[in-house]
Structure formats: C-alpha cells, structure tokens
Amino acid sequence: MNLTQDTIAFKGMKQQWKMTLQISWLLFFAIWGVSNIQAQKPAPKTESNSKVNVVEITTPAAKPHSIFNPNTQSELPISVGAENTASYIPLLSGKRVGIVANPTSKIGNTHLVDTLKKMGIKIVCVFAPEHGFRGDAENGAHIENGIDQKSGLTVISLYGNHVKPTAAEMKQLDVIVFDIQDVGARFYTYLTTMHYVMQACSEQNKPLIVLDRPNPNGYYIAGPILEPQFKSMVGVHPIPIVHGMTLGELANMINGEGWLRDSAHPNLKPCKLTVIPCTNYNHNRAYRLPVAPSPNLPTENSIYLYPTLCLLEGTNVSMGRGTDKPFECFGAPWLTQGTYSFTPKAIPGKSMNPPYLNETCKGVLLSDFASGYLVSYRNIYIDWMIMLYQDCPNKSQFFNSFFNKLAGNAKLQQQIISGMNSKDILQSWQPGIDAFIIKRKPYLLYPFQPELGIY
Questions:
Q1: Which of 12, 72, 352, 404 could make an S-S bridge to 387, C-beta 3.0–4.6 Å?
Q2: Do the Cβ atoms of 320 and 311 come closer than 8 Å?
Q3: Strand locations in 20-134, DSSP E?
Q4: How far apart are CA 14 and CA 272, in angstroms?
Q5: What angle do CA 258, 246, 166 make, to 5 degrees?
Q6: Read out DSSP for 186-254?
Q7: What is the distance between the alpha carbons of residues 325 and 319, in angstroms, rounded to a whole number?
Q8: How far apart are CA 95 and CA 116, in angstroms?
Q9: Cα-trace Rg, the chain
Q10: In whole angstroms, what is the distance from residue 339 CA to residue 329 CA?
Q11: pLDDT tens for residues 316-331?
C-alpha cells in the first residue's frame, strides 16, 4: 500500500486552480494561524436556551485552522454526564436497571457497567447498539443476544430486526440508563437507537436517564433536512445531517417536538426523561474522544471527515473501509487521478466485505485536509461528490439506492446529476437550517457561538 500523504483534496482536472489556491492558504497560515486565532475571536454571540437572539449561520470562506488540544487550554476540563454520579445514583438505588451502552460508556478508564455494579446498582441487562456492547462488530453486522463474559450480564442487541426493547424486556426493568458517545451526524445510528429506547420507555411508562457526552462535530450545522419519506435506521428525525447537538439535547428535542409519535404510535406521549449534562462544555470546545466511537472511526480526523465521506457509502466510491485509514481517504479502481492508492482487505470486527475487496483503488488521503482545512470550512464538502460523479466513466452506476436515505431526500442526487455547483447546493440547504436553528433553540444545554467554529 502506498502511504503517501495528500494534504490537498482531490479536485479533478477542471478545478486544478483551486488546488493552487489551497496550497497558498496552507503555507501562509501554517505559522500565522495558531498565534492569531485567539486574537481573532469575535465578540461572543451565544445560542442556548436562554433568551438571546438566534444568530444566522452562514458559510464563511474556509481557511486553514489548527485544532488546539483541549488539555492545553485554560478552561476547566470537560466532564461527561456519567462522571456526575451524585446526580443519578439516587435515581437508580434499589431499582432494576437496564443500560444502553458500548465501549465508549466509561467513567475514566472503567466501564460504566463495572462502576455501577461496584456501587451496588442492580443491573438486569445491557442493550447494545450497532457494533455491539464491546464494539467488535462491523458496520451493519447482525449481532446475536448473549451473555457478556466479563460482567455475566445478559446483552440484548438493538440492531437489525430488533431495534426497540420489547414490552417483555421492559417489564423486567424500573429504569433505563443511556450512555453512548455520538459523533454528531444524523445517519450515525446511535441516535436512532436512542429514539427507539425513548419510544419503549414512553410505551411502558418507564423513566430514561441520558448521561450526556460532548459532540465532536457540535461546532457547526450543515446538510439538508430529512424528509419523512426517507426515514430509516440512518435517519429518523427532520434534522440536518450535521445537527450540532449532543444526544442529551436531542433527547429533549425529540420529546418536546413530539417526534416519538409515528403512524404506529399516533398518540404516544413524551417519555419520562432526565438528562445528566456535561460540565465545562460548550459547542465550540474541541473534544478528543478517549475511546473510538465505532470500529471504523478510529481517529479524530476520521470523525471530522465522517459527515462528508459517509455520503460516499451511497456511491461506487470507497471511503477506505478495509484499510488502516477508514473515513480518511477515498478512491476507486476507475479513478485516474490522485497519488494515494489502497487495496481494501477483509478485517474482522471492522469490515469483512468492504467495497472493492482486494482491488487496487486510486484516490486521495485526507488526514491533513481534515484538521488543516475542513474544520474551518464548517460544512459538508460537497465538491468531492460533484467531481467524483463528473469523473465517473459510468455515471448511471455512480449512485446506489442507499444514497437518498443518507442524504435524507432525493434532491441532492438530482442536484449533482444536473451539474449544480457546490455553492448553490449549500445555499439550497439554508432555509431548512435556519428553521432548524430556531426550533432547536429551547433544547440546547450548552452555549454555542456559530461564528467562532472550534477551538
């Protein structure tokens, strides 16, 4: 495998001048950017559930940007909701508890399940989302129920044909705790799992406690709003692809907007919800995840690239599954440009049948582009989708049936096919985003300065 590093995005032969411009930006700001970013902070304009004016979000001109390590900042360290045990242990004492958890459900270096067991909390079962309780299942894999060898607890999968706890499972419980790290994209299925757990709690009149965690992509909002006819496991709610909210904030919004109701449950009431918030967190603070949220998002750069590159799962382009750089590259055997090559292999626990298995793909490695450019762009980088479609030799096979579910509409595919430019596509999302900003405002738990980005 050729591990040459491309720091500039593959742009296509028709857009080579943009590459030169990006190189100039990167060289100029490499020294200047870090030393001046703090001085350039605008006067604070925060969006929260307090009574302030909603700030209109626009897409600024992208520029290179250095992500500060949160550990070097003067602010107090961020504490996740799970660490605030004094706020929720009294709600669990003497109760039969179910926990929705995965490997990210930790207090320090100890798993939440182990911590609660040591504290004498009676855990009846663990509900596991996509990738399983221990996080060793590949994307979309069927996960069997079973017994966790380490804890001895019954593990019930909430993925595949069984996405919601049954009435019989709920009958054994007095309360459910949800503690899973999200990455802030609508199609990341942990949000969908929370939705169906909330439905089950409402149906059975059982309380739900959400232990909140920061959103590493919580510093911007982008993408089209999901249309109801495209509801699926990769999108349940009428929100943008990048919603800029934590799962705790979204749980409040799901309850408050009546989104638990559907055709099968037209009269469903909000569930009994308690959110244990993070401390010292705001949506503009960088947050480095201590545990990979899923097998194919192993790095900070892959998490920043995910909202953009996941759309490629609805095309005939590989985004690096089956390699050591999943969601940090893209490529295909038919691509004629790019200096990075990779050959997807079967990797147990990550991807056993990735696109273009054992075929050499040419493309681009995007690791430096993520941290050096994309975080400052604060939007989905739709240019890649446009030029990949334009360069595809068989355009009728570029999109697959999954694309519209990921996009949340049929319009984006048609915009790309028709040759619409990226600026106009991004602008077409803005009315929906503006309405969403107003709707979400009462549910925010943490300050947000849309013009600041991430620091």
A1: 12
A2: no
A3: 96-101, 106-107, 110-111, 122-128
A4: 55
A5: 55
A6: TTSTHHHHHHHHHHHHHHHT--EEEE----TTTT--BSPPPPGGG-BTTB-SS--SB----HHHHHHHH
A7: 9
A8: 12
A9: 22
A10: 11
A11: 999 999 999 999 999 9
Which of 194, 214, 340 shows the shortest CA–CA distance to 287? 214
Are the C-beta atoms of residues 450 and 220 closer than 8 Å to each other? yes
At position 47, the amino acid (one-letter code) is: E
Closest residue by Cα to residue 219 from 423, 67, 61, 38: 67
Residues contacting residue 220 through CB under 8 Å, at least 6 positions apart: 57, 242, 244, 378, 379, 450, 453
Q: Averaged over 303-320, what is the pLDDT? A: 98
Task: Give the angle 368-391-364 at the CA atoms, nearest 5°.
Answer: 20
The CA distance from 455 to 450, in Å, is: 12
d(CA 259, CA 251): 10
Regarding beta strands 110-111 and 106-107, do their DSSP bridges make them parallel or antiparallel, or are they unpaired?
antiparallel
**Dist. CA 440–CA 71, nearest whole Å:** 30
Strand partners, 276: 211
Q: Which two tokens stand for residue 317?
A: 């382009």
What is the identity of the amino acid at 426?
L
Could you tell me if 365 and 329 are in contact, meaning their C-beta atoms sit under 8 angstroms apart? yes
The pair of structure tokens assigned to 367 is: 């690791």
**Placement of tokens 């491309």 in the chain:** 6
Structure tokens at 346: 């079967």
The rounded distance, in Å, linking the Cα atoms of 406 and 311 is 6
| Torsion, Cα of 406, 305, 251, 293 (10° steps) | 110
- CA angle at residue 355 from 352 to 360, to 5 degrees? 105
Give the pLDDT of residue 304.
98
pLDDT tens by residue, 228-270: 999 999 999 999 999 999 999 999 999 999 999 999 999 999 9
Query: Is the pLDDT confidence value at 366 over 80?
Result: yes
Structure token pair of residue 158: 């909430």
SS3 185: strand
Domains delineated in the chain: 13-23+293-442 (3.90.1150.140), 81-276 (3.40.50.12170)
| Residue carrying structure tokens 């309780």 | 133
- Residue pair 322/339 in contact by the 8 Å Cβ criterion: no
Q: β-strands 208-211, 273-276: how paired? A: parallel
Q: How far apart are the first and last CA of the chain?
A: 34
Structure tokens at 405: 């579910």
Count CB neighbours of 381 within 10 A. 22
